[in-house]
């Protein structure tokens, strides 16, 4: 490994966002389709949802969708193209036995920005009329084409103006990975002109990336720093730190 490129950005919701979370019970007059939330009851964007969307948009743009025997669209699983190298491949026997390097990209779950979560809780600023704790509700109605019968459903959405903290880590093993990085940025560009989550063709899920910051960590940043204090984070533990720990531990004998 040569190093890692860490990308931080503000993911801004421009139109109501719905990433489904399921519900253990259904109440009369309650929301039929809730959004996914963490243990604090705050909505968040799963890293798997964002990574899957970036991959599928890039595959469509470069005509790299796979097919099964039934003709259904599947992710590319060739293992050789830049998409497979960036986003990974499934655990097939062929890939297991190859010498291909691991997936380059890590997409963290994106949680509410602290200042936004506080404004929502206190109903401040643009969230002063927020209907629910951190979300809003919207009625959707489908019409049966033969009987004209209405089928109303109540959706929960993350409101416009919500901001999530985004972190993506791109691992670089060789010069080719540096060249392929442009395709990850390309995926973000596709996303801003598409949608995230469900019901995108009905206006949901427009997002924008703002305040993008890039941080580079070379392999030396992980291995060459000197730490002697017993109290350390995982980023501070290296051979020298371990040696100092051993010396302090054995000196007590």
Automatic annotation (TrEMBL):
Signal peptide (from-to): none
GO molecular function: endonuclease activity; hydrolase activity; RNA binding
Chain ranges of the CRISPR type III-associated protein domain: 11-208
Record keywords: Antiviral defense, Endonuclease, Hydrolase, Nuclease, RNA-binding
InterPro entries: CRISPR-assoc_RAMP_Csm3, CRISPR_Csm3_endoribonuclease, RAMP_III_fam
GO biological process: defense response to virus
Highest taxon listed in the record's lineage: Bacteria
UniProt keyword NAD present: no
Keyword presence, Thylakoid: no
PANTHER family: CRISPR SYSTEM CMS ENDORIBONUCLEASE CSM3 (PTHR35579)
Family: Belongs to the CRISPR-associated Csm3 family.
Protein's UniProt name: CRISPR system Cms endoribonuclease Csm3
Organism for this UniProt entry: Clostridium felsineum
GN (gene name): csm3
